[in-house]
């Protein structure tokens, strides 16, 4: 038998074997094994014949080369058809629940989560406990206990969403203040990182869904110096640099006086840039000494104890950390954005 015939019969036998193996094959794993046996890169039965081609004479190559290739294409088609059949009938390979899970190739924590964990770590080291907010809460906790009774004009400061049965997707994480004050005797040190919602006309700085870290600190003899020291220590640890700070008056019904805590711009070091509106300052944390009414409603005697609170925008911290210019990117689901972190 000449080389020609010999090879033709080998090819035929490979084709027959593959056809009969595929008939019996009932799952994807088995299919992969059959494929590897015939077409595997090193030892596949057909691959070995393909590897012979360079050693043939030119004439032999002209005749045999196309035949081998024909068989290869036939096999590939057969495997593909079988794979498709499995995919459409949803036949799964045997699932072994004792095997460890597969690590996804892509995927990591969202930049907001990364920065939130980092902030939590710093506050934990400073002695703060972490409290989770309710994402849907009631008027009593979101407004009443924060010294904002029904009809108070300050309610207009929050573009609140309401559910049909009068609950609120929380408009700020301050909603946990009352529960925190009631839950333990001072000294109290707690932070509330959480997701908030507002009926915003969105732009590069405003989003309907955003994040805050509320802070509450209550003890005897607490003064404004404790508030300033706490916020500055946190921000210097977070931005890993010495910062200048200042405060300016503001208004929130649950603190008296209401303040805004500003730091020297971490991008331009106070020289003036687009991020700080060329002022050299970043208005970062609204805060203040807790209003006596809020303490009273939380069962804390304002004659004996005092404290302070703040509500920090977490999105803003993330934007400053990574120089992100548009808050709407966070929930855009844009992978080109997310994969950078
Ligand atoms: N809850 C306020 C808001 O969302 C932020 C805030 C301001 C919280 C001052 C505080 C505070 O605890 O003292 O607009």
From TrEMBL:
Top-level EC class as recorded in UniProt: ligase
Reactions catalysed according to its record: tRNA(Phe) + L-phenylalanine + ATP = L-phenylalanyl-tRNA(Phe) + AMP + diphosphate + H(+)
Q: Which residues form the Aminoacyl-transfer RNA synthetases class-II family profile domain?
A: 181-320
| UniProt main location, coarse | cytoplasm
What protein am I looking at? Answer: Phenylalanine--tRNA ligase alpha subunit
Asked whether the UniProt record includes Secreted among its keywords, one would answer no
TM helices/strands, residue ranges: none
Please state the gene responsible for encoding this protein.
pheS
Q: Which cofactor does it need?
A: Mg(2+)
Cofactor mode of binding and number, as noted: Binds 2 magnesium ions per tetramer.
Cell division: present as a keyword of the record? no
GO process terms (BP): phenylalanyl-tRNA aminoacylation
Location of the protein in the cell: Cytoplasm
Q: Name one GO molecular function term.
A: phenylalanine-tRNA ligase activity
Q: Which residues bind Mg(2+)?
A: 256
Quaternary structure and interacting proteins, as annotated: Tetramer of two alpha and two beta subunits.
Which keywords does this chain's UniProt record carry? Aminoacyl-tRNA synthetase, ATP-binding, Cytoplasm, Ligase, Magnesium, Metal-binding, Nucleotide-binding, Protein biosynthesis
One Pfam family name is tRNA-synt_2d
Q: Which family does it belong to?
A: Belongs to the class-II aminoacyl-tRNA synthetase family. Phe-tRNA synthetase alpha subunit type 1 subfamily.
GO cellular component labels: cytoplasm
Cite the EC number.
Answer: 6.1.1.20
């Amino acid at each position: 038998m000449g080389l020609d015939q010999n090879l033709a019969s080998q090819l035929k036998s490979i084709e027959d074997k593959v056809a009969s193996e595929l008939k019996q094959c009932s799952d994807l794993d088995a299919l992969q094994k059959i494929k590897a046996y015939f077409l595997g890169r090193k030892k596949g039965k057909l691959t070995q014949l393909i590897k012979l081609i360079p050693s043939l004479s030119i004439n032999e190559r002209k005749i045999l080369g196309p035949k081998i290739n024909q068989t290869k294409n036939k096999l590939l088609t057969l495997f593909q058809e079988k794979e498709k059949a499995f995919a459409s009938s949803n036949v799964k390979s045997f699932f072994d629940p004792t095997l460890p899970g597969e690590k996804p190739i892509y995927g990591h924590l969202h930049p907001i989560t990364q920065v939130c964990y980092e902030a939590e770590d710093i506050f934990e080291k400073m002695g703060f406990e972490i409290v989770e907010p309710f994402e849907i809460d009631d008027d009593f906790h979101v407004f009443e206990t924060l010294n904002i009774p029904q009809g108070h004009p300050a309610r207009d400061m929050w573009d609140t969403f309401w559910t049909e049965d009068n609950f609120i997707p929380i408009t700020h994480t301050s909603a946990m203040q009352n529960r925190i004050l009631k839950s333990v005797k001072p000294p109290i040190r707690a932070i509330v990182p959480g997701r908030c919602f507002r009926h915003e006309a969105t732009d590069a700085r405003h989003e309907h869904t955003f994040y805050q870290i509320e802070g509450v600190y209550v003890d005897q003899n607490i003064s404004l110096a404790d508030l300033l020291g706490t916020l500055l220590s946190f921000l210097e640890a977070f931005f890993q640099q010495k910062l200048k700070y200042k405060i300016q008056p503001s208004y929130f019904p649950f603190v008296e006086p209401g303040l805004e805590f500003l730091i020297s711009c971490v991008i331009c070091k106070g020289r003036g840039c687009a991020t700080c509106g060329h002022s050299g300052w970043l208005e970062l944390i609204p805060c203040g000494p807790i209003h006596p009414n809020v303490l009273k409603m939380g069962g804390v005697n304002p004659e004996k104890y005092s404290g302070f609170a703040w509500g920090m925008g977490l999105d803003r911290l993330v934007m400053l950390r990574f120089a992100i210019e548009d808050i709407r990117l966070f929930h855009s689901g844009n992978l080109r954005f997310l994969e950078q972190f």
